[in-house]
Write a structure and sequence with these properties.
heterodimer; A: alpha/beta; 37% helix; 18% strand; B: mainly beta
């Protein structure tokens, strides 16, 4: 079922880093940048869609209102969303629905976070019925543990090597060199990655993304508003598809933060695995397929996970992802550049802002404004991510 | 006075010599759900179906494994000093599901690989003044599995 489009009028970010300031400040910077980019006044925004942060207390749980208050109350309607790493796109999806329902012409989507150094951990306080608390308590199953389980599978099933994984980091580090919003802007060599301390075998420190402060925002509108508002010749980038699907039963892949998978007894697992299905829904809405993509931003929580994503979004068959990175297919200038922004490898993760940041990058790529990291002639882009508890999202943008 | 051995979490596994994981099974779907206590999942074809307690099979094969070299954050209770530990994902053939667990103490992770046959055992997770808290762990079944001299 193809879905009507909405326009991306503006994109803005606060640089990722460790600035030691309040998340609201970052969000306001990103919001103002997106509004300026769109040429839209804050007072004209009719809907504010915030992506929540769980690590900043109450203001983070009502992020939409928090950002609206910080920008100055002006009576806009508001929603606040949390969906783990998919929060930003859940917020975008909410705004899109308001627009497509005719309830709103123009909306602001914003997410911001401050993140502690080291492993993401559950909020303090014993919770004996919370799987996320329990997996730390009983197993020491950190997030990188799960990434390492997937990486080991690639090694066993496909003969992937630590050097294959390292090449993903090298590629992304090179991409991020020219991204002013990236936190890490430094080339690394394969040997440096493979010599970094082992964290969760087979993944090393430089295989795993950091955590960062950061903020990203989008101004989105109806196509009609975009036409009325058009400044000059520039055709806006359009959101052609959004996916926020949950898994289908049974999911045979062990997912954060669970202790076990579903059981496949008596029920055939669905044809598409969960991550594949996230992309499939976005493709379906947008009426495109993997061969139509010019560029992709995928959630490289680890180097090996980026390789999984190539297969999940259909860039190649299972087992072929290593060949794509080794042949340079996913490097800028190659057949299908992936993470021209530098990815999480160069940003680190700022949970509620990250999925929005992916769409910001695609917007700049499709406009030809990604200076120093431009994918030439980009017309169709895909972003994709996955978080805990069955969350994942994907956006397809077109120009 | 020796410490009392108690489960680190109640009701998830039996404390026998041949321990078993406690799961539930849908009485209409036949689907297995673990851990029983959390009730996080369901078969959508049978919403709200009655479930019965079942004990999962004790043996499976390694789906994947990861040895952690950094001390995890709270609420994990790490031994002092920290020693690397291995989390493995085990495929249970009869239940057609994958269950996590740590590798049993004294087993060298270099001796396991995807497909290694393992069985459920109990092992210490952490201690306090009165109790030794135990968890289920997985240990290779093969008699040729090397046991490292860890001194623990």
């Amino acid at each position: 079922m193809s879905v009507p489009e909405v326009a991306v009028l503006g994109a803005g970010m606060h640089p990722w880093g460790k600035w030691g300031r309040n998340f609201v400040e970052y969000g306001v910077v990103a919001a103002r940048a997106a509004l300026a980019d769109a040429g839209v006044e804050w007072n004209d925004i009719q809907f504010v869609s915030g992506a929540d942060t769980m690590r900043n207390g109450y203001p983070g749980y009502v992020s939409g209102a928090t950002f609206a208050q910080a920008l100055g109350w002006q009576g806009a309607q508001v929603a606040s969303s949390y969906a783990a790493c998919a929060s930003g796109v859940t917020a975008l999806s909410t705004a899109r629905a308001q627009i497509l329902a005719g309830l709103c012409d123009v909306a602001l989507v914003v997410g911001a976070d401050t993140t502690p150094k080291g492993f993401l951990a559950p909020n303090k306080g014993g919770r004996g019925d919370d799987p996320d608390w329990l997996r730390f308590r009983l197993l020491g199953a950190t997030n990188p543990t799960y990434f390492a389980l997937y990486a080991r599978r690639r090694m066993d099933l496909y003969g992937a090597t630590p050097r294959d994984f390292a090449r993903v980091k090298v590629k992304n580090a090179r991409h991020g060199l020219n991204n002013p919003n990236a936190r890490y802007r430094k080339e690394v060599t394969e040997d440096e990655v493979m010599a970094s301390p082992i964290v969760s075998d087979p993944l090393r420190l430089l295989d795993i993304c950091a955590t960062s402060d950061g903020a990203a925002a989008l101004v989105v509108s109806s196509m009609e508003f975009a036409r009325r508002h058009a400044r000059g010749e520039r055709q806006p980038v359009r959101i052609a598809g959004i996916s926020t699907v949950t898994p289908s039963y049974p999911n045979p892949i062990i997912e954060m933060p669970n202790f076990a998978t579903d059981s496949a007894v008596g029920v055939t697992p669905p044809e598409l695995g969960f991550k594949d299905s996230i992309a499939a829904k976005a493709y379906e809405e947008a009426g495109v397929g993997p061969d139509d993509l010019s560029v992709a931003e995928v959630y490289d929580l680890s180097t090996a996970l980026e390789l999984d994503w190539y297969e999940n979004v259909g860039l190649c068959k299972p087992g072929e992802a290593e060949r794509l990175v080794n042949d340079g297919d996913t490097t800028i200038g190659g057949r299908i550049p992936v993470n021209p922004s530098g990815g999480l490898a160069c940003f680190g993760e700022a949970v509620p802002a990250q999925a929005i940041a992916q769409v910001c990058e695609l917007t700049w790529q499709l406009r030809g404004e990604a200076e120093g990291r431009q994918v030439e002639g980009a017309t169709v882009g895909l972003s994709i991510n996955q978080g805990l508890f069955g969350h994942g999202s994907s956006v397809i943008v077109k120009r | 006075m020796s410490k009392t051995r108690v489960p680190a979490v109640e009701g998830w596994f039996t404390m026998d010599d041949e321990p078993r994981l406690v799961a539930s099974r849908g009485m209409q779907s036949g689907s297995y759900f673990f851990p029983k206590a959390l009730a996080v999942s369901g078969n959508p074809a049978w919403p709200g179906e009655e479930r019965e307690d079942v004990l999962l099979g004790r043996r499976g094969t390694v789906w994947s494994y990861a040895t952690n070299h950094y001390q995890p954050p709270e609420p994990y209770v790490s031994p002092e000093p920290f020693v690397p530990y291995t989390v493995i994902a085990v495929e249970l053939p009869d239940e057609q599901m994958v269950v996590l667990g740590q590798l049993a103490d004294g087993v060298d992770p270099a001796t396991i690989s995807v497909g290694t046959e393992v069985e459920l055992v109990l092992g210490p997770l952490y201690e306090d003044h009165e109790h030794e808290y135990v968890m289920w762990k997985w240990r290779p079944v093969e008699s040729t599995a090397e046991v490292a001299e860890t001194g623990r």
